[in-house]
Amino acid sequence: MQLAAGDEDRPDHTQRPADADDLAPTGLMPAAVISRPVAQHVPEPAYAISMRGLVKSYPGPQGGTTHAVRGLDLDVPQGETFAFLGPNGAGKSTTIAVLCALARPTAGHATVAGADVVSRPGEVRRRVGVLSQHSALDADLTAEQNLHIHARLYGLSRRHARARAAEVLGTAGLTDRRRSPVRTLSGGMRRRLEIARALLHSPRVLFLDEPTTGLDPHARAQVWDHLRALRDRHGSTLFVTTHYLEEAENCDRIAIIDRGRVVALGTPVALKAAIGDDLVVLRTSDDTAARQVVRGIAPPDRAIAADSGGVSLRVPDGSTWIPRLCAALQRHGIAVHAASAAPPTLDDVFFRHTGRSLDTTEPGTAPAGPSPAAPTPSCATTSETGGRR
Predict the structure, then answer these.
(1) CA distances for 264 relative to 235, 255, 267, angstroms
(2) Quick one: angle between helices 158-171 and 187-198, nearest 10?
(3) For residues 99 and 91, is the Cβ–Cβ distance under 8 A?
């Protein structure tokens, strides 16, 4: 696919001929979008996104009904980075489709950037940017050409399209790759280019549906550095859906969604603090015998598990329990190979509210041991250092 050559800039005037090429409809957007009057100043609404009783259902198999979204009530303030955390099929992408006026809600109502998604869908679409799960970039075009086409579809004149493309390429740190075919860019670069494309028309709210799916950890960190810079520099409101626990930690607030319902809402710190207890894991020479010894020491209301990961239990201030548990096991002739105390994780929060782990998503499956980043020092090291780094 090639862009037409020989386009010439035209000076910007308030009045242009009716056949001016800059205003020629592209065929892919309504003329009303392309030639709209200059917007008057409208005060920003209190919330960038507001939902009340939002429901989205589809016809299901055998004449039934599939309820993808079940009565969501949420408010997202201006400038907040907000996350929907949940497994695949929880209703995250469906919610974004409704909030972007790409799907009509079955019941309830929602406003985005001050416009109702049902009565003013065109305004909603003009005021939001969307980063979908799957790439829509043309791999044979350059980064600059991809942006220019998208800008023209939003009704920007050629001059404005080129200026905005250069601006967002700079924001994404891709100016030096502007003439590189997209197929030559790394995964992280492509994702940053897609974010740049979503920002071309200066949206008030940016929706990011699984923004780092398929990226390696380094590229994922680069994308989030870019998103944080956008929020800090422009005050952008970011609405993120994800099933990555570490990704949700980057957000100001999180709504944990399961089967179309919000089951928990708050900051990452507050949600984990509500769990309260640390997870203590002991790896021993005989976990079955160790479980019985630990049962005699731990508070009677504590569940104690023994599996391939070792012996585990939840107690307040877990690091103070490790020396006591190690000493008791050694008195019984049980060697302790490793011990750790980890604070609650978002997976623990998800399990508390749903009975399932985000990692396994199987009913009744508890989170297995500490997160990969949690320390697993030996008993002697834990006793000396307090159990946490």
Answers:
(1) 26, 6, 10
(2) 130
(3) no
Give every CB contact of residue 10 below 8 A, 6+ residues apart in sequence.
16, 20, 21, 22, 157, 158, 159
- Strand order of the β-sheet with 65-77 is 65-77, 47-59, 107-112, 115-116
Q: Beta-carbon neighbour count of residue 53 at 10 Å?
A: 13
The amino acid sitting at 380 is A
What's the rounded Cα separation, in Å, for the pair 104 and 22? Answer: 33
The arrangement of strands across the sheet holding 310-315 comes to 305-307, 310-315, 278-284, 336-342
Task: Say which DSSP state 333 is in.
Answer: T
Q: Which residues fall within 8 angstroms of residue 179, CB to CB, at 6 or more apart?
A: 142, 143, 144
Per-residue pLDDT of the chain (389 residues; tens, 9 = 90+): 444 444 444 444 444 444 434 444 444 444 444 444 444 555 566 799 999 999 999 998 888 899 999 999 999 999 999 999 988 889 999 999 999 999 999 999 999 999 999 999 999 999 999 998 888 899 999 999 999 999 999 899 999 999 999 999 998 889 999 999 999 999 889 999 999 999 899 899 999 988 888 788 888 888 888 888 888 888 889 999 988 888 899 899 999 999 999 999 999 999 998 888 899 999 999 999 999 999 999 999 888 999 998 999 999 889 999 999 999 999 999 999 999 999 998 888 888 888 888 764 444 444 444 443 333 344 543 433 333 33
CA 227, distance to chain mean position in Å, is 11
C-alpha distance across the termini of the chain, in Å: 54
CA–CA separation, 56 and 92 (whole Å): 11
pTM given for the model: 0.73
One DSSP character per residue, 131-166 reads E-SS----TTSBHHHHHHHHHHHTT--HHHHHHHHH
Residue entry with tokens 């090429």: 21
Exposed/middle/buried for residue 39 (C-beta within 10 Å: 0-12, 13-18, 19+): exposed
